């Protein structure tokens, strides 16, 4: 499964960090402030997606930035109401999709922390 999500161009990643990141801080990292990184959390794990403009202020996936959109990723949804961390009630197929997204991100973006108090890990 791992090779299936390998990037076409190898990515040199830093060792993962587990620094606590508050929801307030995460929300400030939504791609609109160039002095801050653009962050996305998946299952409570925070990824730095700054170098991918698709998650920036004008990108196609900007709706995910500054949030934990685990449910939206699992449902392959770009709806604002789905951009929430809760995913436990989803069916097995959607949970598999979410895990695939987690694997995809973990092979491309540095893990910079964990959402403080996250219950959806």
TrEMBL record:
GO cellular component, one term: membrane
Entries under Gene3D superfamilies matching the protein: Cytochrome b5-like heme/steroid binding domain
Region Disordered, annotated ranges: 1-20
Pfam families: Cyt-b5 (PF00173)
Residue span(s) of domain Cytochrome b5 heme-binding: 21-116
GO MF annotation: an example: heme binding
Family, per entry: Belongs to the cytochrome b5 family. MAPR subfamily.
Protein name as annotated: Cytochrome b5
């Amino acid at each position: 499964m791992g090779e299936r999500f390998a990037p076409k161009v190898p990515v040199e990643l830093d060792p993962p960090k587990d620094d606590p990141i508050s929801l307030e801080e995460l929300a400030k990292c939504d791609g609109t402030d160039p002095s801050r990184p653009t962050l996305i959390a998946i299952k409570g794990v925070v990824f730095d997606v700054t170098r991918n403009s698709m998650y920036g202020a004008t990108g196609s996936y900007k709706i995910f930035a500054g949030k934990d959109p685990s449910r939206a990723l699992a449902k392959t949804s770009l709806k604002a109401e789905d951009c929430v961390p809760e995913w436990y009630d989803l069916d097995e197929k959607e949970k598999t999709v979410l895990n695939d997204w987690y694997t995809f991100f973990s092979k491309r973006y540095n893990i910079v922390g964990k959402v403080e108090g996250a219950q959806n890990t």
